[in-house]
Amino acid sequence: MILFPAIDLKEGKCVRLQQGDMARATIFNHDPAQQAAQFEAQGFRYLHIVDLDGAFAGAPVNAAPVERILEAVSMPVQLGGGIRDIGRVEDWLEKGITRVILGTAAVRDPAFVKEAARRFPGRVAVGLDAKDGRVAVEGWAETSDLTALELAQRFEDAGVAAIIYTDIARDGLLKGLNMEATIALAEAISIPVIASGGLASLDDVKALMEPRAAKLEGAITGRALYDGRLDPRAALALVAGRTA
């Protein structure tokens, strides 16, 4: 079980959105690299980054702060947002990103995602962001006709390292993870699933430790860490207890 602290980048700053709405952004740190270093010092062992501006633009926008983060930490980093072609994938992996996350591309161009997973084994994840049961794209600004399960099944046996499943209705609102939908997805596919959206407290981490969640690879935590609702030491101790 991996607990991923999240850094969402908007105009070079570390922010959290509510339900993916760029107009509802709260700035938590003006120095993302310092924030990343703090997470590493707290004991986290894998970092999750999203280039929010890039997700809307369809190309990387916050490349400079991402590169500074890579210089500031030694832990592995996964990155999503605006990665829409094989050149971008290769560029980020060469710069030190451990795993790229492809979201909109998974809907618009599944062949590209499969090619990336084949060329870079274990280093490509798919981001499935669900709104009212349907997968959202273009920085969550548009909703497709696909369900999360339908899209995930496209990539079975394609070599995708993980599926990151986000419940948009809960994201940034501290309502708790949607364990039922996330576990149901994990049980329906062979690809490891990471829970995202709404992690609010230590109770959510405890829920991740339950036997029913055994198929989950981990969960992403954002706002709860930033506003102090989730104690990093206690959360990581729980996770360590499971893996001990």
Overall pLDDT level: 93
Number of helices: 11
Structural class: alpha/beta
Strand content range: 25-35%
Q: Looking at the structure, what is the overall shape?
A: globular
Sheet of most strands:
8 strands, parallel, barrel
Element-by-element helix/strand order: EEEHEHHEHEHHEEEHEHEHEHH
What's the end-to-end separation, in Å?
11 Å
Q: Approximately how much helix is present in the residues?
A: 25-40%
Number of strands: 12
Low-confidence blocks of residues: none
Rg (CA only): 16 Å
Major sheet strand order: 1-4-5-6-7-10-11-12
What kind of oligomer do you see?
Answer: single chain
InterPro entries: Aldolase_TIM, His_biosynth, HisA/PriA, HisA_bact_arch, Isoase_HisA-like, RibuloseP-bd_barrel
EC number: 5.3.1.16
Enzyme class: isomerase
Active site: 8, 129
